[in-house]
Design brief:
- The protein is an alpha/beta fold and about 270 residues long.
- The chain has a domain of about 150 residues.
- The chain is about 35% helix and about 20% strand.
- The protein is built from eleven helices and eleven strands.
- The strands form two sheets. Strands 2-3-6-7-8-9-10-11 form an eight-stranded mixed beta sheet. A three-stranded mixed beta sheet has the order 1-5-4, with no helix packed on it.
- Helix 3 runs parallel beside helix 5 and helix 9 runs parallel beside helix 11.
- The longest helix has 15 residues.
- The termini are far apart.
- The chain binds iron/sulfur cluster.
């Protein structure tokens, strides 16, 4: 396995320091969960909470189920027994597609230290379930060696804007846009099936984003901003209100579709 401890180690420390990240190691009762996500049968979330702490994150509802009162993005529960539980659960489960992850980022900085996502993938390998990975993190390229051993796998990178200034407003603790674009390129070069998840659709210049990505993705997912109650104040503060207008969004989506011509583009 390629060790990235050297390059990502300082990232963990920085995140912990900068965010006073509360890290708790817990033992989960179950790790392979049935899901209602279209096209998927199960989800695996090796962590509860996410240090990326995106301002729009829909997964913040997890606080209610985990007795966390801290702000979203400031705590992560680490399910240290995830690979062991998965080993037991996978044997008894009907084959299907697994999303990794649905309510956390499986390659957030703590994954460097704990390697739970990697170890879960190792448990899945002999069973060859179909795997759909979604992340914002360049760390995902650490596991390309494993991805190559799956018959059916795709890796999605979430890129919500082409502008770093916008990323810093909505996703202040997540990896930079350029790093994510480079990651898609690396995955594509490794012949892994890739997609870009443009969701939620943030202020962007469609042609710029398409130009940087079209060559490297197999398909595209676009999701509009559905979490307006969480972000309305940001739209107001930075004078982005027009981006909440449905007609304006439709125009942007049409320009994205044009830029990704020849690729399948799903719009939610
Ligand atoms: S990376 Fe995903 S799970 Fe993590 S805070 Fe951002 S939107 Fe939520």
């Amino acid at each position: 396995m390629i060790s990235l401890e050297h390059s990502y180690g300082p990232l963990i420390t920085n995140v912990q320091r900068a965010m006073s990240l509360l890290i708790k190691e817990i033992k989960a009762k179950s790790i392979l969960s049935k899901t209602g996500i279209p096209g998927a049968h199960y989800s695996i979330n090796p962590y509860t909470g996410c240090s990326h702490g995106c301002r729009y994150c829909y997964a913040s509802f997890m606080k209610r189920f985990t007795n966390h009162s801290e702000p979203w993005g400031s705590f992560v529960d680490v399910k240290i027994n995830a690979p062991d539980i998965l080993k037991r659960q996978i044997k008894k489960s009907r084959k299907g597609t697994i999303v990794i992850s649905s309510v956390t980022d499986p390659y957030q900085p703590l994954e460097v230290r704990y390697e739970l996502t990697r170890k879960c993938l190792e448990e899945l390998l002999p069973y060859q379930f179909s795997v759909d990975i979604l992340t914002k993190s360049p760390l995902v390229h650490r596991d390309i060696d494993l991805f190559k051993q799956f018959k059916e796998i795709e890796v999605g990178i979430t890129i919500t804007t082409d502008e770093e200034r916008i990323r810093k407003i909505f996703e202040p603790k997540a990896p930079p846009v350029d790093a994510r674009i480079r990651t898609i390129k690396k995955l594509c070069e490794a012949r892994i099936r890739t997609y870009v998840f443009i969701g939620p659709l943030l202020p962007l210049i469609p042609e710029v984003l398409c130009e940087k990505l079209a060559e490297y993705v197999d398909y595209v997912f676009i999701d509009r901003m559905n979490y307006i109650t969480k972000t309305r104040s940001l739209y107001k503060k930075y004078k982005f209100e027009k981006w909440l207008n449905r007609e304006y969004q439709d125009n942007i989506v049409a320009r994205l579709k044009k830029g990704f011509r020849g690729k399948k583009v799903n719009v939610c």
